[in-house]
Amino acid sequence: MFDATQKRDENLVSRYLTAKEVVVQSGYAREIDWQEQRRLENVTESSFLLECAWVILNSGMRESVVRQRFPLVTRAFLNWSSASEILGQQQACRRRAIAAFGHIPKIDAIVRTAGMLVENGIDKIKRRIKVVGVPALLQFPFIGPVTAWHLAKNIGLDVAKPDRHLCRISEIAGFSSPSEMCKLIARHVGDRLSVVDVVLWRFATLQHNYLKFFNIQLSERNDDVQLDSWEGPTHRGQRKLRLCA
User: Which domain covers residue 196, as residue numbers?
Assistant: First the structure.
């Protein structure tokens, strides 16, 4: 049993390194670098509001769609200059954001998030996150049990989010959860959990047969799993602060 588990782990790590190479060669090295550099202590009110907005808008939607519209939403909300400025121009910001994105509950959730930042202050919010962890993010509108992990990763907590791609990969690779799988990979290769997350997620968006690629038992019988051809990222906009998924 030990030998079988060890073989599984070795195959998974090898597949991860190949996936990372595909992601880098596809033009997404900056996503990996961005995630590697994220730290909660460096998060400002502006960047926190931006990341909340990004996760709120991505909930239940394709990332590529949100990425195309996000620059317009950013301008609508005064380039995330400050929560107080957004509240001071709340109606105008809301009107422009709805015109850009069209999902009223999500836009209202962003406005409410700005209000919570004004009321509590970013320093108090960050202190609570340090003490409580991911559950501290559940207080924000439109942030649920899964999207809280997405937001946590994007503001610098070293976690892996249990989204559908990672859940499917971990299951087919023989692990009980994405966290267990990502911790093993991180321990072997030295990447942060959050980096492992973004590599696997991006690889899944690039390769339609990603589950076959990570099917360890299948890979043991046939090491030549055919990968799709790939191209670099397109339509990435001007979101300099927000390069990662």
Answer: 2-38+160-221
Residue 26: predicted pLDDT: 96
Alpha-carbon gap, residue 89 to 83, rounded angstroms: 10
Same domain (yes/no): 26, 44: no
Closest-CA residue to 202 (of 63, 71, 66): 63
Which of 148-161 are b and which e, b meaning 16 or more Cβ less than 10 Å from the residue's Cβ? bbbbbbbbbbbbbb
The length of the chain in residues reads: 245
Q: What pTM value is reported for the model?
A: 0.85
Distances (CA, A) of 17 to 20, 33, 214, 234: 5, 16, 12, 24
How do residues 11-42 score in pLDDT, each as one tens digit? 999 999 999 999 999 999 999 999 999 999 99
Question: Using 50, 70 and 90 to split pLDDT, how confident is the model at 229?
Answer: low
Together in a domain, 63 and 7: no
Largest CA distance in the chain: 63
**Which residues, 6+ apart, have CB-to-CB distance to 155 below 8 Å?**
38, 40, 43, 47, 48, 51, 129
Q: What is the pLDDT of residues 95-154, one digit of tens each?
A: 999 999 999 999 999 999 999 999 999 999 999 999 999 999 999 999 999 999 999 999
CA dihedral 101, 104, 110, 112 (to 10 degrees): 160
